[in-house]
Each structure stands twice: as C-alpha cells, then as structure tokens.
Specification:
The chain has helices spanning 11-36, 44-67, 77-103, 113-145, 150-154. The protein has 166 residues and is mostly helical. Residues 8-155 form the Cytochrome b561 bacterial/Ni-hydrogenase domain.
C-alpha cells in the first residue's frame, strides 16, 4: 500500500477518489434511467444506498486528507475553491435527500415543507455537482495537455524508485 506523498496520492486516497467517482456516476445513471422510464424506479433504493455510502466516503476522505501528513497541495486558490465546492456539494446533495426522507410522512402528511424542499433542491444541487465534476474533468484535461501531469497524481503509476519521496 502506497502512502500519499507531496507529488502523488497514495492507495487509500486513490481508492476513495475513484470509489466516489463510481458511486456518483452510478447514481446519475440510475436517476436518468428512472426519469426516462418509470419501470427503472425500482433502482431508487439502490440509489439511496449509494448516496449514503457516498456521504460516508466523502466524510472519511475529508478526515483522511486532514490526517495525511504528506499529500499533494492544490496548485492555487482556484483549485482549492473548486475542490471545496465539490466536497460541499457531495455532502449537501445526499444530506438534502436524507432530510427529505426523514420528513416524509411526518404529521400524517405525505408532503410538508421539508419534503418539498428536498424534492426541489436534491435534483438541482445534484445537477450543479455534475456541472462542477465536468469542470473538474475539463481542468484535469487542460492541465494534462499543458504537460502538468495532474492525472498521474491520482491515476498514474509511480516510479518505484520514488516510492519514498517526501
């Protein structure tokens, strides 16, 4: 298992990053599927389970990032703010759904202020998250094309002789 270094993310950071990416991709695909065809609404419980798992992964990744002594630093303030916005939305989107689901059926009502809020804002914030993810991917491609080797930090192989780089 490789640790984080100043130039590369380690095994745990990479597993968390790509696990979160996969969970988000699957959740969007499921949501699109059941909006296109109601028969796919049977995927809603899986979507909710993945959302809860994503929330746990995001929180764990945040703790892991704070605890890591060695890890790549953001290139500039825009990079830092972009990642902060991604993390805030990855917490906000499932939290809104959890609030909505907890409020459903309270006071004998199927719809109340919190469920309406959740119905209105869960999807909106999810689409905003998708837009930020698209920007994240686009910026990775731009930096990569400039020769900055950004993708190698999270996906590339590390040179074995640099395994203990500081």
């Amino acid at each position: 298992m490789q640790p984080d270094t100043r130039t590369h993310y380690g095994t745990i950071s990479r597993l968390l990053h790509w696990g979160m990416a996969l969970a988000i991709l699957l959740m969007f695909l499921m949501a699109i599927a059941w909006h296109i065809n109601a028969r796919w609404q049977s995927l809603i419980p899986v979507h909710k389970t993945l959302g809860n798992a994503l929330l746990m992964l995001v929180l764990f990744r945040g703790i892991w990032a704070i605890a890591s002594e060695q890890r790549p630093k953001p290139g500039n303030r825009a990079v830092w703010l972009g990642h902060l916005a991604l993390y805030l939305l990855m917490i906000t989107v499932p939290s809104i759904a959890l609030i909505r689901d907890a409020a459903r059926g309270r006071d004998g009502l199927a719809e109340n202020t919190l469920t309406r809020f959740g119905d209105d804002w869960h999807g909106r914030t999810a689409w905003l998250l998708l837009a930020l993810i698209a920007g994240h991917i686009l910026m990775t491609i731009i930096h990569q094309r400039r020769g900055e080797k950004i993708l190698q930090r999270m996906a590339g192989r590390r040179n074995p002789q640099n395994f203990h780089e500081k």
